[in-house]
Amino acid sequence: MAMEVEKIQVMVQKMSGEVLEAKVSPEDTVRELQPRIAEELGVPVLCQQLWINNVTPQIVEKTLPVMCNQVSETIQPITNKDIAEMKAMMRPPPICVDVLCVVMHLLGFKRRGNDYQAKWKDCRKMMANASHFRTSLTDWPNDVRNVPEKQVREAQKVIDEVGELYNREHFMKMSIACVYFCDWTLSALKLYRAVHSTGQVTSLRLDGPETRPPLNIYLEEGASSLLISLVVDFETVFAYAKSYDAKKVLEALEAFKVIAPKCTERCVPALCKCLRSDDQERIAAIECIKTAFQPDDDLAGAFAEALGAAHFTEHGTEEAVEALEYLGPQNPAALRCIIAGLNAKSQMLDEFLMLRRRRMKKKRAPVEEEEVDTDKNDAEKEMRQRCLEIFKQIEAKLSAAEVIDTLLKEILLATHNPVGGTPSSGVQQEAVMAFMVASKRDEDYAMARIRERLNPEAPEAFGEQLQQIKARCAFLSIAVASKDDEKLLEAFHGCLNDDQLRGPELQAVAECFSELSSGPNPFVQSLLQQLVLWDTKKAEVIRVIMKIAPKDDSRVIEAMQRYCREAERIILDEGPGILKMAAECLNHVVTDKSIYEKGITPAIDALIRKCTRSNLAQRDASQMPLMLQTQECRLRSQTEFFLILLVTSN
């Protein structure tokens, strides 16, 4: 008998004709055979489909008890709590209702309607008693011979309607209970077909869930050899690569080391997904790329296109940079990504730090903001410096014009600009350094391109980003332009005709002009006009005016004196802090200090009156609502503080 055989002669044959011959113990399983197949035939375990052809009804009968156990085991992980949570959903996703309808058909429950509400009501009724429901699922294989064919047809019909989404990976996004229901229904249907079509089954698949039975279960009576057909299938690998299960993704990456050269087009997007994932997957992905591929410019371009330049600015990871550096960073698409990395602001790191804060909060451990910011800045800087090193190595191999144009496009159009930040806060130091390196090769071309963007002939071509582009061009020009460059200053003057240039962008252009010109700044008047707009951050505008205005500028003196004269309104509308900025600006601009002293007198008087009224109002504070008390106290303390500052400076 087969059970008495000491060794089984196994022959595994590929479709291409290659054969693996091995002697195995009768108790060995397919799982123990698969690593040998992977090693000797070069087919990863995930890609192996193992079949026995021309099976007899007797072999099928021998496998039925194993299949029954597997159906029951698929539902073991689910608990009464999981079922209760599922039942408590008010409006579960339709596909979750569909998988429960498949269960309902197989168990023989009657449905009362086909609309969503009726189906969900029937499903909840089926799960009313969680313990009884679980028992029904576990015992179903024992009565599989008596299940009516009509129930199975109805179940299969629902699965066919759902289509390719009916798989555990898709259900992972919905509910863990639905994953188990999906596994149970697919195993149950497979068992039903084996039981009711024993004579029609001519082949059995050995890999997958059926890898636990010993190999001798597939032997004919008295036989001692087994012929297995090997079909190479990549679909499982790509399904694992899309999984949310990190363990499965790592298995897929191991398989990619072997199959990636054979199906590069499909592997590139999957590997790029891993390069954007967590640390473990990123490290495994870069190891896979270096094992599977040789450096190749076209392949570097394919990876760069799949990742996208925005990835390097917003979600930059060192492994993505390392992949392009290894494959060929001089490819134009790869170069764009490296240049985008010079301006990296890692959102992925932001999310990581947010998660870290939450975890530390749960542990009630203090989180030092300074420590978090340091970690974030260090990681971003390391990423940018790596990109700068690569840039310096490859830029000389490319034309200066190509490099300058690519740099300008990525720097000027970068979308990351922190809330409340200036335009230059969206441009990192490494990006500026790279532009300086490239400009040395063709300074005339670099300056011409900056002038074109400061004062474009067709502004509409740049759309809503034109103001950001102008501000960043002004910022870059400081790094590469000479003092009092006439052509450049003429382009700056052209910005005065742009009515849309305002706010932080206008302030940036004005400050940069002062750095580049030894003459009077023409943007003072534009900034003074900004002070009358309600949505302007006036303190910041006044700071810039104070920096660029010439001494004894009558326009600035009049504007700051007006602020001081309207101090009472300013305190109520904008707070007392703006008065201090106006007083500082007035003090900085005038050479005759008596003008300053006379100018701030109304502000000091208003502050004194406000403090006096606030102190008198304290007597009736008990009659004020708590919110108003808090606001009044805050305003009073601010007013007293700025009064002390103004009087001291006077």
From TrEMBL:
<dbReference type="InterPro" id="IPR000626">
    <property type="entry name" value="Ubiquitin-like_dom"/>
</dbReference>
<dbReference type="InterPro" id="IPR026983">
    <property type="entry name" value="DHC"/>
</dbReference>
<protein>
    <recommendedName>
        <fullName>Ubiquitin-like domain-containing protein</fullName>
    </recommendedName>
</protein>
<dbReference type="InterPro" id="IPR029071">
    <property type="entry name" value="Ubiquitin-like_domsf"/>
</dbReference>
<feature type="domain" description="Ubiquitin-like">
    <location>
        <begin position="8"/>
        <end position="50"/>
    </location>
</feature>
<dbReference type="InterPro" id="IPR016024">
    <property type="entry name" value="ARM-type_fold"/>
</dbReference>
<dbReference type="InterPro" id="IPR011989">
    <property type="entry name" value="ARM-like"/>
</dbReference>
